[in-house]
Amino acid sequence: MALYSKFESLLKEHNTTAYKVGKATNITSSTFSNWKQGISEPKMPKLKKIADYFGVSVSYFTGEETNVVLPPIKEPEKLTTLPIIGEIRAGFPTLAQENIIGYEEIPLTWLCSGEYFVLQVVGDSMVDARIMPGDKVLVRVQSDCENGQIAVITIDDIEPVATLKRVFFNGDKVELVPENRKYPRMVYDANQVTIRGIVKKVIFDV
Q: What is the pTM of this model?
């Protein structure tokens, strides 16, 4: 409990939150809660991550040193909040749903110019590209892509649908290629396919 009080003092001093520290250090909210309630004590690797985040020594928490001079804290990474828009199925296409279902904090260093959004992956056709069910993908909005890029696609067939695939252009045809051998390649007329954006990064929870 005394250790957590020191942690709370650092949060207050540096005008931040346990949530932001957790995002930066990959420590879950439940872990912080257990520490606060005295259910568990932080192991040294996690304690060092927190100490490094605030720019203090581990002994600041353990009390093994006195009269510790704290170095200046390093500037925390700047974040922005992006909407999570609907869900796409990395498998056979599903109906496009562009409703906002949540928000995700993203480091500004991940973004360049342009508009971005986050989509949730719920299928398994891109697993060989390390895009797993439950992952989120950071998407840059644009209407074109290069051969072989992974893109978010809508297909004008019976109804507009949304899918995540590698895209290859061949004359007036567009081939959508999964990264899982159990799913077939799909070929459409170019005028049936609309590129909504390209995948820039996969976001997953540890």
A: 0.59
